[in-house]
Amino acid sequence: MFRHSSKLQYPVKVDKPDPQFAMLLQQAIGGVEGEIRVAMQYFFQAMGARGDDRIRDLLMSTATEELSHIEMLGHAVALNLEGAPLSYQEESAKDPVINAILGGMNPRHLLSSGLSAMPVNANGVPFDMSHVYATGNIGADMMCNVAAEAGGRVLASRLYNWTDDKGMKDFLSFLIARDTYHQQQWLAIIEELGGMEEQLPIPNSTPDDHEAKEHSYYYLNTLLDKQAPEGRWSQGPSLDGRSEYSMKQEPEPLGQEPSLGKAREGARAQKEQM
């Protein structure tokens, strides 16, 4: 069951409407870094969260909060579209060049949505759910969630730098703050489950005899003209505490040539292939 308040989670105000910024805000709604993505990702992860019910509750509550962020962003888009040109004549009367590009606004905000938000990114491409990751593995899902919140915070920070509107900066500072918490919320779940040493490698339930462990802990250098970059990833104890990292500087291929031989009759290949 879901419940809804008639009020926004945080105040959304625009001092000076900017249709171009409305188009950019669409990325935070329907982009791969946007709120539709994380809302649906957490929702579907929650529906497949087996084990500790606290994690399911966290996922569902956070998914619901992300719906609130979509609502706020949608309101921000609509406010920024106030005063946008309503007709070809209105815009072309100002400047034929500006008319050609509609001042940077997305024409579909007029043609398709009546000067309101849409479930699309900044290019007008609908969000198709292909970037929603819900594996049923809590370790894998939390890693995906940290990356999603990191990408969202990068986007919100860039939008903050783009605008000079005080109302929009205040609103975006709230989204940046919530992304700060959500990144750490998902990392805190990993810590609650024993930290990286217990959770890695994911899945940590794969039997040892299913893995060629002699290949599990070395960095493979494929640079032909440089030495391998050295760092924490190439030396010292592994993060899961099971081995030591090493490096193969000039690795030799271990496999065979991938020759497929002749084509089969009836495959409609060229005669020279048979």
From TrEMBL:
Region of interest (Disordered), ranges: 229-274
Top-rank taxon: Bacteria
Basic and acidic residues bias spans: 241-251, 262-274
Segments traversing the membrane: none
InterPro entries: Ferritin-like, Ferritin-like_SF, Mn_catalase, Mn_catalase_dom
Family note: Belongs to the manganese catalase family.
Name this polypeptide is given: Catalase
Species assigned in the record: Salinisphaera dokdonensis CL-ES53
